[in-house]
Structure formats: C-alpha cells, structure tokens
Amino acid sequence: MFVSIACNVLNKSWLLIGTRRGCVQVFLPNRYHKTVNKPSNYVSCSSQLSETELRDKLRVCSTTKELVTRLSEVFVQQGVPESRLSAEYIVATSFGLSRKQLLRGEPTLLSQLEPFYSTLTHNALRRLLREPVQYIVGNWDFYNLTLKVRQPVLIPRPETEELVDRILKFWKNVLRRGSTGEVTRCLEIGCGSGAISLSLLKGWKEFTGNNNILKVTALDIDPQAITLTKENACIVLEDEQKRLLDIHLQDITKFRLDDNKYDFLVSNPPYIPEAEYRTLQPEVIQYEASCALLGGKDGMEIIRVILRGAKNWLKTGGTIWLEVDPSHPKLIQDFLHKEPNVGVELLQVFEDMSGLARYCKLLVI
C-alpha cells in the first residue's frame, strides 16, 4: 500500500488547555479560537510514505520508549501537530493500553510480531493523514466519563465540560432553595456523542442530592450521533439512569412538545461562521461532520431557531444554556431587541478558560 499525503496546514498555534482536572492536550485545533479580521495563513506541505517504509522505520526500535521517540520524529518530519503526544497515544492504543498505562510502566521490550506492527502502522498512517487522535483511539475522557468517539460525530471539547459544570452548580443552588418540584426536565439540542446529557445525568445526584430527579430529552439531526449517544448511554449510565433519558432523531425546526414543558435547555449548537469554517485545520474540516460545526454566514443560524422556539419548549422562568462563538453575545442581544416577541432575555455571559465570551445563560419570560 502506498499512501500519498498532501494537505494544507493552517499555521496556527496548538493549545495546551487546562481543565478542572489538570492539563489536557487537545489533538485538534481549538474550534473556538478565532483570529478576527486576519486572512488565513496556510503552509503547503506534502509527503509520500509507503506502509513498508514506515514499518521499517519503526522496526529498528527495541523498546516502547524508543518506538514513541521514533514515531514522534516521523510525525515531525511529516508536519503532524502535537507529534510526541500523538505518538504516545498511538503506541499505547496499538498495545491495547491507555496512554497513562504506557507512560507509567517500564519500557517494554518489543518483539517483531506482525499483528502489532500492522496495527501500529495502520494507526500511524491514519494520523499522518491528519485524522484526529480521538478517532484513532476510539474513546475520549469528558467530565469524568470515558466516551466512545467515532467519525464523523463531533469530538467533545474541554470548553463544553465547563458548560456542564456551570449548569450543575446552578441547579445545586436552585434546589437548595427548594424552588422546584421532584423532577427537573432538560432538553438538549444537538447531543452528538451524548457528552452533555450523559454528564448531567451522572453528575446530578452528586450535585443536587437525592430529593430531585433529572429527566433528559436529547435530540440530534444526525443518525450517526443518535446511534453513538445510545451506545455511550449503555456504557456509562446505570439502569435507573437509562430510564431517565430519551434520545430522538429530530429536526429542531419541526420539534413539537407532546407533554409538559422543560425546566431548562442546553445546547452546543453548530456555531462557526462560514468564513471561519473555511480556515479550520484538516483534523476538523476533513473528519468532523460539518452539520455539527457550521452555523451559517454569522454562525447564528441554529441559535436563532433555538431562541424562537424556547418559549414553546420551556416553562416561564426556564433557563437556556448555550455555548457560542465569542462574537455571538452581542448578536444574540441585538436579535432579542429586534424580536421581543420570542420572550427570551439574556441574563449572563461567561468566559471560557481562555478568557473568551463562550457561554450564554438566558431566561424565558
């Protein structure tokens, strides 16, 4: 097999992102980072590497430590971002280990077993083609859960963990005041891998105690996202929690309620503006579903649908939690002034860990 690799690489920095559990390196460009009013800066890179040549480069290694170093060097030569960490994850996955297990253990002596090198070479070639490490590994940590991830469903980002954390802390305070009933109902629009809904269900009892039950309805327009959410629910939820989750394939523009309204809505909608979407790195634009990223000309297309429908879906006093582009809080405020009949008020805007306006909390009035 001969692989020709030719791609345009965006000349932007890759970010070391700190989460509440420490530092996590992200193997794809931060889709939320935006350079305003600057043209995209691409560097052309091309490489040709055969499977046999790659395998020969790796076979000279006698330990896993040497193997990680050699593979990292190959990635550097081929212009793959985060070369060392990519190599660590790929070697670990090929051994059937986690990265932590690989790094904690003693350097393992390697044999020339063909199955191992076939798997390693296959995974390394996928990374050389700029496939995100998350898809190669097949799972990723999100808010104390390990979730399956699979192309083309959106890979959960650390920014969204912070959104989950804010929602849980908010409801902890609400329920302490005794200002709600025994059941709280949540609607998630655009569930993707299920990261938000599943994290809320898993964290609800810890944050709010045993006096309130959370019921979640998770919607997505992508059948592959619905399938992945169901798979992850089966993995991470207890039987009792599974009964509290409804997952539906649904176009939000046609969503109608059949029963009681919801107490709050959460969404990490597609919000990247068209102009910015065209500048994203290959890891994103070639592998993740555009319907989970692209939000129309100004990134507000689905956000407007959500705001217009919120009064029909939520109780009066219900809250809306959105992850947005930093340009959106002002656009949302302008939209609400122009269309006051939607019955929604912007309450607060929160910054993410990078200091960018990332989250909007709104109220149905």
TrEMBL record:
GO terms for molecular function: nucleic acid binding; peptide chain release factor N(5)-glutamine methyltransferase activity. Residues 66-138 form the Release factor glutamine methyltransferase N-terminal domain. It catalyses: L-glutaminyl-[peptide chain release factor] + S-adenosyl-L-methionine = N(5)-methyl-L-glutaminyl-[peptide chain release factor] + S-adenosyl-L-homocysteine + H(+). GO terms for biological process: methylation. CDD domains: AdoMet_MTases. GO terms for cellular component: mitochondrion. Keywords: Methyltransferase, S-adenosyl-L-methionine, Transferase. Residues 184-276 form the Methyltransferase small domain. Its EC number is 2.1.1.297. It comes from the Eukaryota. It is an enzyme of class 2 (transferase). PANTHER family: HEMK METHYLTRANSFERASE (PTHR18895), MTRF1L RELEASE FACTOR GLUTAMINE METHYLTRANSFERASE (PTHR18895:SF74). This is peptide chain release factor N(5)-glutamine methyltransferase. It comes from Galdieria sulphuraria (Red alga).
